[in-house]
Write a structure and sequence with these properties.
Keywords: Signal
CATH architecture of the largest domain: 3-Layer(aba) Sandwich
InterPro entries: ABC_Transporter_SBP, ABC_transptr_periplasmic_BD, Vit_B12_bind_prot
Shape: elongated
Strand content: 5-15%
Protein name: Iron complex transport system substrate-binding protein
Radius of gyration: 21 Å
CATH class of the largest domain: Alpha Beta
Number of domains: 2
Distance between the termini: 72 Å
Largest sheet: 4 strands, parallel
CATH superfamily of the largest domain: Nitrogenase molybdenum iron protein domain
Domain Fe/B12 periplasmic-binding: 44-296
Number of strands: 12
Oligomer: single chain
Helix content: 25-40%
Strand order of the largest sheet: 4-3-7-8
Signal peptide: 1-24
Order of helices and strands: HEEEHEEEHEHEHHEHEHEHHEHH
């Protein structure tokens, strides 16, 4: 009897990769610094992270998305697309059955061995993980090239660039606010200045109290936060409306952020995904820091 692994490999190897001669080859460089070329714009795309899903839709190629992973909830129509597991464990048989012509992978989030298997069987994998505002805009444009939606992608990338430039200009001369951003609760985690969220804080005139730490997403503890004594604490939570992470800090009356009523909730999907919605999240961040300035 053939092994399950062989059946998966066989299914993947039978994916339709041939292109009509009516189309020209399209190429783009991914965030792993590899050039990925397709014989024609991709008509069937698998997006293997919620952020990748948003980026493909932003590039104007939402109607070509045939597979997503759990928590791919934006735009709303993405919720109706078949799911192929989670970003940390893909259902390879399900993925194969959906016959993608292009897979959008997450550089540090997807299982490398699974993406390597997909790629070894002839299905192109385009790795994405934007680490800057320009990286987000560029990702949209590059996906537009591979999906044949170049003009839509260019317009959306320009809108994002213009919006971020406006934020930089508006808050360039604002007084600084010392901020702790909580990205997770157990274990307690934050971000450093190299993280994209750290760059948002900087654009709004914030100073990340843990910005100098080496790791992109460092683990810390309550004592570290108390010692840093931030003027404001920003956090998401387990869901788009769950403020539970912020209530944890109400037990520490010595915190400047608590005394000044500067515990601010930000819906995580607006700030923790490297997508065009980061513009909305950045504006919200900046509004929160303006409130912190007003509370002095």
């Amino acid at each position: 009897m053939m092994s399950r692994r062989f059946l998966i490999a066989l299914a993947l190897s039978l994916l339709p990769m041939a292109a009509s001669s009516a189309y020209a080859e399209v190429c783009a460089t991914d965030d792993a610094e590899r050039e990925v070329c397709l014989p024609a714009p991709a008509e069937r795309i698998a997006a293997l992270s919620p952020g990748a899903t948003e980026l493909v839709y932003a590039a104007g190629a939402g109607d070509k998305v045939v597979a997503v992973v759990d928590y791919s909830d934006y735009p709303p129509e993405a919720r109706e697309v078949p799911k192929v597991g989670s970003h940390t464990r893909l259902d390879m048989e399900r993925l194969a059955a959906l016959r993608p012509a292009l897979v959008i992978g997450w550089v540090t989030g997807n299982p490398p061995e699974q993406l390597e298997t997909v790629e070894s069987l002839g299905v192109p994998v385009f790795y994405l993980e934007p680490r800057s505002f320009e990286g987000v805009a560029s990702a949209i444009e590059r996906l537009g090239e591979l999906a044949g939606t170049r003009e839509v992608a260019r317009r959306e990338a320009a809108r994002f660039r213009d919006g971020m430039a406006e934020i930089h200009e508006r808050y360039a001369d604002r007084s600084s606010v010392r901020v702790f951003y909580q990205v997770w609760d157990e274990p307690l985690m934050t971000i450093n200045d190299e993280h994209l969220i750290g760059k948002v804080l900087s654009a709004c005139g914030g100073v990340n109290v843990f910005g100098d730490l080496d790791r992109l997403v460092p683990r810390i503890d309550d004592a570290s936060v108390l010692a840093a004594d931030p003027e404001a604490i920003l956090a998401g939570g387990m869901g788009e409306e769950n403020r539970q992470w912020l209530t944890h800090w109400e037990q520490y009356p010595s915190l400047t952020a608590l005394r000044r009523d500067n515990l601010f909730f930000v819906p995580p999907s607006l700030i923790q995904r490297p997508t065009p919605r980061l513009l909305e999240g950045s504006r919200l961040f900046c509004e929160k820091l303006e409130k912190a300035r007003a509370h002095r």
